[in-house]
Amino acid sequence: MNNRTFTIIKPDSVENGNVGKIIAHLEGEGFRIVAGRMTRLSTDQARAFYAVHSKRPFYNDLVAYMTSGPVWVMSLERDNAVPHLRKTMGATNPAEADQGTVRALYGESIERNAIHGSDSDENAAIENAFFFAASELI
Ligand code: CMP
Prior knowledge:
This protein has one domain: Alpha-Beta Plaits (2-Layer Sandwich). It contains seven helices and four strands. The protein has helices spanning 11-15, 19-28, 43-49, 59-66, 81-89, 102-106, 121-131, and strands at residues 2-9, 32-39, 71-79, 115-117. The protein has a four-stranded antiparallel beta sheet with strand order 2-3-1-4, sandwiched between helices. The chain binds adenosine-3',5'-cyclic-monophosphate.
């Protein structure tokens, strides 16, 4: 029953030198790394990736933040991948995230919250395809 999710290790995590620790945390949770790389989002990419939030008041700040520095994008596999990653990440706001979650450990604020994770299987497929060619997702 293995399935896939998608994550972005955000600019704050790269800046703070937490990429390796977060990847180790995710592997410790049983995720297999299907594909991954460092990249820097263009404004167009960030706007498209977060299009679902385009009407929200934080959208422009979110796009500016996500393009402010390099990020690590990654496709992950595990049983119950989407809900398990969301549990492993913790609440969007690190101040509300359960102890021991990635956002509680490494997040600084609701914007600088260490990591993004897909919210549904459907979006996981869309988000993986946004960054990776089908030939990379093996
Ligand atoms: P993420 O899981 O990447 O999805 C959308 C992001 O918007 C979210 O994490 C937060 O980092 C960011 N964000 C900024 N402000 C808010 C807010 N007020 N409510 C929800 N998300 C926010």
